[in-house]
Design a protein that fits this description.
globular; mainly alpha; 172 residues
Amino acid sequence: MTRQNPFNLFELQAQWDIDQASLHKRFVAASAKNHPDRFTDALDQADAAAKSAEVNEAYQTLRDDESRANALWEILGGSGKGDDKSLPPNLLMEMMETREEMEEAIADDDTATLERLGTWAGQQRADHLHRVGALLNEAASHPPAERDPTLRQVRLELNALRYFQRMLQQMP
């Protein structure tokens, strides 16, 4: 089964900025419409269960900034998410040094340093998401044949974003 465009499933324009309240209303309506308990026939129930799973997956994709960005990146013509591992210059070195500082702070139970690092990582995450959104909007404004350089920059930002996401997840 081919994965459906999550924006289309909820009849939303494929764009970075989406109204979360509207998305939630559409999710509730789609979930109610496709709930397996509404059907008595076993085949209809199975179809509804599959559709319900698709609705849930699409909703989770659009609710999460990174997942929504990756979905939009693909819709706009980005290819091979796993193929492009590019990162901003010096990011790996900066992350290694920061991780070392974080590990020392954990070992020393240094809550002030951990709070500072958490705030920094959160701000870095927010900055990368902001750039991702702006770049996706820019890519969407260009004809498909002219999107590639911007989509490569989006991929670079999304790859960097993952480092800050992981750091925040691993903070005590």
